[in-house]
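Late entry, evening session. Most of the bench is empty. Finally got around to the prediction I had been postponing all week. Sequence below, unchanged from the version circulated by S.P.
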Amino acid sequence: MGAPAVRQESRCGGGAAPRPDSLHKACRPALSPFERSTVQALDTWQEDNDNTWREPLSRAQAQALMRAKPGVSALAVVALQLAVTLAAGLLGWALAGRAAGLSAAWGGAVVVLPAALFAAAMRRWLVRLPPAYALFGFAFGELLKIAATVALLLLAPRLLGSIHWPALLLGLLAALQVYWIALLLRGKPRALSSD
């Protein structure tokens, strides 16, 4: 009888009560559902079964991967947003008159102008920063983009005078949908060559 207790004690740690996430699964005390989910979350982070070594990609392999999955530049997305905005403005003008056309164009401009500033800033200086600063710069740039969008929306009544709100919202939504179109325009992945 003494031997199993010693084996159990050495396997379960014995002595002071260890943290539940460090105990062997057979030795863990009964936990509440909340504690169980917390321990399970800790286990998934601690028990990483993927310990296989992966060789870093060579320059040629990285270039082949980039060719196989081409991206769309931020400036190309902004140019497409500008084209959609102009089309929405012309369509609004043709269907409902001058106020609707200007409102639809302003709605698109509310999206295009901050996006263009953000894309230019990313291209100009954000890519030169160390990764930690670049992440902060990206988040701060997104915050400024949202603030500029809100400011442009608030300026609409002063600058346009007569606003056609449905046209403004449709122009804004049309420009926003370009992000989804850009995902479709990324290009179909091509087969990787085995170099």
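Two things to note before I forget:
The mean pLDDT is 77.
The chain has two domains: 2-44, 72-184.
Will write this up properly tomorrow.
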